[in-house]
Amino acid sequence: MRDRNRQPQRLGGEGTMTRIARILAARGVDPASAQVHDTPEPIAALEAAEARIPLRYRNAIGDHPQIEAWVRNVASEAVAPSKGARRQVRTGPSLLLVGTTGSGKTHLAYGAVRSLVGAEIGVRWHATTAADMYASLRPRAGVDTERELLALSRCPLLLLDDLGASKTSEWTEEITYRLVNHRYNQMLPTLITTNLAIRDLRQAVGDRVASRLAEMTERIVLAGADRRRGPAA
Hints:
Elements: H1 13-26, H2 45-50, H3 65-76, E1 94-99, H4 105-117, E2 125-129, H5 130-137, H6 145-154, E3 157-161, H7 170-186, E4 190-194, H8 198-205, H9 207-216, E5 217-222
Parallel strand pairs: 1-4, 1-5, 2-3, 3-4
């Protein structure tokens, strides 16, 4: 018969765990191996990044000296949001990759992203072409395009591909200015590629954008024939 006066025993505590360990040991079970892991092992950061990178650039390598220096500089400025937390990209320098069509700008830009992600720091990043960005930000019913623009502007690392390749208008110039100006003011690392010479880029994006890009970015000029038309392509 159950003793009504018996006091209930508190679960947990050192005594309970010791008894459990003794029972497991008596049954030949290693207590360490009996632990239950209810969360899956994390996917490697680089593998997760590669799943978002276009297939053509999934194995891109940032093997340019200026790219390698940029990765080191951005990584050195990463900070931990709290004690013991992983360092995160917050601010850093930007790059402007300039070259003719097929000179390898996009390949190097994605290589830079892969190198930074693999540098054992946290990196939230987004990549888009200028044309796709304008298309996604055009006002339309049911979409908060202002919120989308703000998300792009605040993203810790942004890759903006083919700036100046789209048809320009006062609206695209305003969008580009708002994006670049925010990232310029907050010193957010940005990778920008363009086919245009600097004088032509100024005409495409406006003086205000060109002026900020000149100050916030280090320029990488790529020369050579169109790789897409070569034997390797």
